[in-house]
């Protein structure tokens, strides 16, 4: 992962929402006469981008994940070879590199960035991206596609049936996750999508941050629940862009026995 950004139907409202939720400040990166693109800063470090125009245009308000590529032209070619589609680009971003937006064979929209220079992005500080997972109806196809594209290795951490969740790694480093949706908890019309998880401060916690989302005009799609990664809630900003909140310090201990029905066992995906 090298970058994330969000498109919004109300950029000014989105700026206020994320500033109120995460304490983000912003700097303008666009030039006069061009679309305004803001870089969100948290603790002085770039954590996300915010744009008033969705890419692709019919994608609606949404968060987009960008993976690093050493050659986006080649990525575009390989994308189609393995069943994906190019939706936008590749295009040059002055001073930043080249960018490409595509879709995997299961329909998940994903970005690829060829940086013009190295930069630090990921962190564990509150307000920054912590984890990203692809939610899709065809887990096996997504696994195979990204294995061919980037050489990711998969490890099943669910039972593969009721909970089909794989993690993707390369050279021993876990990079991303993939969750197979099922009709027990997902709307049958829900398209494949990436769910980005942003860290909340432990002193605030996921529950309080979720209530703040509502106060700021967003919505809650899935109430806070406990996992081995941390306590998570799925929410949306006022424009409808969905994302997740996570407190990674508030985890279920995988080695401890938790009886079914316990208040600490509340994962919505195991129904």
**CATH fold-type name:** 2,3-Dihydroxybiphenyl 1,2-Dioxygenase, domain 1
- What is the helix tally? 4
CATH superfamily: 2,3-Dihydroxybiphenyl 1,2-Dioxygenase, domain 1
Mean pLDDT: 87
Describe this structure in a few short sentences.
This protein is of the alpha+beta class and 271 residues long.
Helix/strand layout:
Blueprint lengths: L2 E5 L3 H12 L2 E4 L8 E6 L2 E7 L11 E6 L3 H10 L3 E9 L3 E7 L5 E7 L13 E8 L2 H12 L2 E4 L8 E6 L2 E8 L12 E7 L5 H11 L3 E8 L4 E6 L5 E6 L24
Parallel strand pairs: 1-4, 5-8, 9-12, 13-16
Antiparallel strand pairs: 1-5, 2-3, 3-4, 6-7, 7-8, 9-13, 10-11, 11-12, 14-15, 15-16
Short key terms for the protein model shown above:
alpha+beta; 271 residues; 8-stranded mixed sheet; globular; 2,3-Dihydroxybiphenyl 1,2-Dioxygenase, domain 1
Describe the fold and architecture.
- The chain has 271 residues and is of the alpha+beta class.
- The protein has one domain (1-271): 2,3-Dihydroxybiphenyl 1,2-Dioxygenase, domain 1, CATH 3.10.180.
- It contains four helices and 16 strands.
- The protein has helices spanning 11-22, 72-81, 139-150, 205-215, and strands at 3-7, 25-28, 37-42, 45-51, 63-68, 85-93, 97-103, 109-115, 129-136, 153-156, 165-170, 173-180, 193-199, 219-226, 231-236, 242-247.
- The strands form two sheets. It has an eight-stranded mixed beta sheet with strand order 2-3-4-1-5-8-7-6, covered by helices on one side. The chain has an eight-stranded mixed beta sheet with strand order 10-11-12-9-13-16-15-14.
- Strand 15 and strand 16 (242-247) form a beta hairpin.
- The protein is globular.
- Mean pLDDT is 87; it is low at 256-265.
């Amino acid at each position: 992962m090298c970058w994330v950004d969000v498109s919004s139907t109300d950029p000014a409202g989105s700026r206020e929402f994320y500033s109120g939720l995460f304490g983000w400040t912003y700097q303008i990166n666009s030039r006069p006469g061009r679309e305004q693109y803001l870089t969100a800063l948290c603790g002085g470090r770039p954590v996300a981008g915010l744009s008033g125009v969705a890419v692709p245009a019919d994608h609606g308000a949404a968060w987009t994940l960008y993976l690093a590529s050493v050659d986006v032209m080649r990525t575009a070619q390989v994308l189609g070879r393995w069943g994906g589609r190019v939706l936008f680009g590749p295009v040059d971003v002055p001073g930043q590199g080249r960018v490409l937006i595509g879709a995997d064979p299961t329909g998940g929209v994903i970005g690829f960035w060829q940086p013009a220079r190295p930069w630090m992005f990921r962190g564990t500080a509150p307000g920054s991206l912590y984890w990203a997972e692809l939610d899709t109806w065809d887990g096996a196809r997504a696994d195979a596609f990204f294995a061919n594209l980037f050489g990711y290795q998969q490890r099943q951490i669910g039972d593969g049936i009721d909970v089909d969740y794989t993690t993707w790694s390369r050279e021993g480093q876990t990079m991303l996750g993939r969750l197979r949706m099922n009709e027990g908890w997902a709307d049958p019309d829900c398209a494949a999508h990436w769910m980005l998880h942003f860290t909340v401060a432990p002193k605030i916690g996921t529950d309080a941050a979720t209530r703040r989302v509502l106060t700021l005009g967003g919505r809650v799609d899935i109430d806070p629940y406990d996992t081995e990664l941390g306590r998570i809630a799925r929410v949306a900003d006022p424009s409808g862009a969905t994302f997740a909140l996570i407190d990674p310090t508030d985890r279920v201990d995988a080695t401890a026995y938790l009886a079914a029905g316990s208040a600490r066992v509340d994962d919505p995906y195991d129904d």
